Amino acid sequence: xxxxxxSPKYLFRKEGQNVTLSCEQNLNHDAMYWYRQDPGxxxxxxxxxxxxxxxxxxxxxxxxxxxxxxxxxxxxTVTSAQKNPTAFYLCASSIEKGASPLHFGNGTRLTVT
Amino acid sequence: GExxxxxxxxxxxxxxxxxxxxCTYSDSASNYFPWYKQELGKRPQLIIDIRSNVGEKKxxxxxxxxxxxxxxxxxxxxxxQPEDSAVYFCAASGGQAGTxxxxxxxxTLSVSS
Lengths: 113, 113
Description:
heterodimer, A: mainly beta, 4-stranded antiparallel beta sheet, B: 6-stranded mixed beta sheet, 54% strand
């Protein structure tokens, strides 16, 4: 939807396992972002990338990793080091870094037990 | 880095009343201030945005005001309708080249008929 595809919609994993969330965009946007949403916490920035092969940590990057090998793709890996991984994860893109509107995907709800 | 505070966390109004949500930001160099609406189970959608060279912007029943001196901006919804019920997020960015949007924690607006 809206040019940004996140998959899967729901994901279940056992504690201690790494898991990768997919995010693909066909909007030809340079910048891509990952946010985590928890009830009452708003959207918190995990990682963002302004260009292929480059990315920056956000406010809550610990326990997460990303790659940006292609302009269209920005996968997020939730590692076993993330202490509270159960959350709703939103991927977004924008035409340019920083001061431009974000286009969000539909999100992936990750449950770790 | 940027910090965005949003108030109130919940807001209940009667249909037809006005609703106001306020946000403050910390980075005086920030220059882009969007507002997003998120309905239950859906992705956030941009409803209006304002840049630092403008003091007010209006789109039908929605308006945003910006006070750069005080570092705060507000969302005003007039003639509220039940379909306005949602979570609203403010955000700020642009303080430094390449910074990503930082969001407030959200306001849950309930409009009763």
